[in-house]
Structure formats: structure tokens, C-alpha cells
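Pasting as-is:
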Amino acid sequence: MFFYAAVTAVYFVLGLWYYCGMKMFQEGAIPIQKYILATIVLGFLENSFRGMNLFLWNITGLRSAFVMYTGKSSARTNNGGISDQNGILV
């Protein structure tokens, strides 16, 4: 649970740093940067839902179906398609 909280915090800081860098150098931006930022945001959402799932499971003893399946669907999207495309394009 704490591992996912730490990874979520890293994703948040990375996304904020990348977004500020995009805004600072807006005139020299390339279109792929938006997709890279979207991948960072999806990674943040994936890890935050995983952390929430483990936190709720630890407190109540039951897994929340909404949180569990939302996190899994975002993980499939992030790991399945977008990350592979960004790896090929960059």
C-alpha cells in the first residue's frame, strides 16, 4: 500500500514538472509531448486506484469493485497501448 502511495507521489511530481516544462517552453513544443503527458497522467491514475483499492481492502476487509475494476481498466489502457506507442515514437 505504501509502495503505491510513493509511486503515485512520484507520478504526481513528474507530471507537474513535465506540465510546467511544457508551458514554459510552449513555443518549442512538439505534438508528441501531449501524449507523453497523457501517459504520465494515466500512470498516476492507475497507481492511485491501486493504492486506494489496497487501502480500502485493508480497512474494510472487502475489495471495492468500482475502484478495483477502474484501476485495472486504466492499467490495461496505459500498459497495453499508449506506453507502447510512446516508446516507438520517442
